[in-house]
Write a structure and sequence with these properties.
This protein is an alpha/beta fold. The protein is built from 19 helices and twelve strands. 41% of the residues are buried.
């Protein structure tokens, strides 16, 4: 994915990201409240070198270098049992040298002879006492054990306490601001990670970019989501000034570019059920009729027909009966209202829809409709359920795939496109339905104009 794809995913999963942030903040605050307060007391010790009056300049330089090198060794010695055992005994502490060492930290700057000794404890007074006791024991060990010499030398190492530990008044932990920041960052990172993982696992198409990534054809239209679509599927006639009706008119404009020799036969299908193919077919037919085209709308879904129901006409006799030779086309195709739209319903549900739709009679029927109408729109069953749509597409100008935003899987859509191409038919374009307002990337006409250079 590109950067803008990540931004789109995060916008889409904003609730999840914000939830992660809030959970992180709450966790950070809870950790801070449940963490017992800890105090830190610090003392500073300086490693010094005393040289004799008879020491040469090289002896002085050697002594200084030795002191600098000894700082690293002394920091290790400082948390050893040699230093800490006397502290435990003197202060009567109920702990071991190893556990006490875990509460002691040392620090020394580069090329510095000063060692900082810090001790953490829940009791501020105890923290200061332990820090001073460690300093005293450390000084004793260094001067009387590590640096004790049997014979006089040109220099000797001593430790000088620069700053004794004072009783701290402010705890170093819990640090509420730090806990909140860390919790927020972790929660935000988890929220973003879960959002991206969910987007990766969720292969449903949501935008025109998702559709184009699945099927390499133009997105001819984006139809907005409408809660009343189930009750009023024909938006072009029921709400001609509405947003959905305008989207179907924009779709009509784009489909008009797909005409061959001034005419077009288009199979409207989808990968699965409930994606809006019949609604798209019906509204597209109405949009063409409103523009003055003679339109034939054929319900080619002989298994679960919808067109007759949407237009409120009798659909008991229709396409299947014509293909079976029981009636003539002119006897069952009927004009809808006063428009230039003629509808051929599905008719009797046959036991062999695929055979009828793939017959020579079907090809002759399409030829007859093409000769009589400017536009022929055929509503066909979903491709992944049956092969009917692919069979019909062979005798049409091409197929238009309908995908529903938020429900159609990208892999299913891609398989549907391959199913059309497998029978040497063409996928002319796609239509994305049920698009939420934030999911519409661009105007469908602008998208087509940009590709065609119009």
């Amino acid at each position: 994915m590109e950067f803008h794809d990540y931004l789109r995913v995060l916008r889409r999963q904003l609730v999840l990201v914000v939830a992660g942030l809030l959970i992180g903040l709450s966790t950070g605050a809870l950790v801070a409240m449940l963490t017992p307060p800890r105090y830190e007391a610090s003392a500073d010790v300086m490693v010094t070198v005393q040289v004799s009056d008879t020491a040469t300049s090289s002896d002085r330089a050697l002594a200084t270098s030795y002191a600098m090198q000894a700082v690293g060794t002394y920091r290790t010695v400082l948390t050893s049992s040699l230093v800490l055992s006397p502290v435990i005994e003197d202060l009567n502490l109920s702990t071991s040298p190893e556990r006490l060492a875990g509460r002691i930290s040392t620090d020394a700057a580069v090329n510095s002879a000063i060692i900082s000794i810090s001790v953490e404890n829940r009791n501020p007074g105890q923290a200061a006492r332990i820090a001073n006791a460690v300093t005293e024991s450390f000084t004793t060990v260094v001067t009387e054990t590590l640096e004790k010499r049997e014979q006089e030398t040109a220099y000797s190492v001593r430790l000088v306490t620069l700053q004794s530990a004072q009783v701290p008044t402010v705890p170093v932990a819990p640090n509420l601001p730090l806990s909140l920041v860390v919790g927020a960052l972790i929660g935000l990172a988890v929220g973003i990670g879960v959002a991206l993982l969910r987007a990766t696992l969720d292969q449903r198409v949501r935008t025109a970019s998702d559709v184009e990534a699945s099927v390499a054809v133009p997105v001819l239209g984006q139809i907005p989501l409408d809660a009343d679509a189930a009750e009023h599927p024909l938006a072009v006639s029921s709400a001609p000034q509405g947003q959905r009706a305008e989207a179907f008119r924009a779709l009509r404009t784009n489909v008009r570019f797909l005409f061959s020799k001034g005419q077009g036969v288009f199979v409207i299908t989808s990968s699965g059920p409930g994606e809006g193919k019949s609604t798209t077919a019906g509204n597209l037919a109405l949009a063409f009729a409103d523009a003055g085209h003679r339109v034939a709308l054929v319900d080619g879904d002989l298994r679960l027909p919808r067109i007759a129901e949407y237009f409120g006409i009798e659909g008991g006799i229709g396409l299947s009966d014509v293909l079976a030779g029981r009636v003539e086309l002119n006897d069952v195709i009927e004009r809808w209202g006063r428009s230039a739209l003629f509808i051929l319903p599905a008719g009797t549900v046959p036991p062999n829809p695929a055979e009828l739709l793939g017959s020579r009679t079907m090809a002759q029927l399409v030829e007859a409709l093409t000769a009589a109408f400017d536009v022929v729109i055929i509503d066909a069953p979903p491709l992944l359920l049956v092969t009917d749509a692919a069979v019909i597409a062979r005798v049409a100008t091409g197929a238009i795939l309908v995908a529903a935003s938020g429900s159609t899987h990208a892999a299913h859509l891609a398989d549907a496109g391959k199913g059309i191409e497998a029978v040497d038919a063409r996928v002319l374009g796609t239509v994305l339905t049920k698009v939420r307002a934030a999911g519409a990337e661009k105007n469908p006409y602008d998208a087509h104009a940009a590709r065609s250079g119009a």
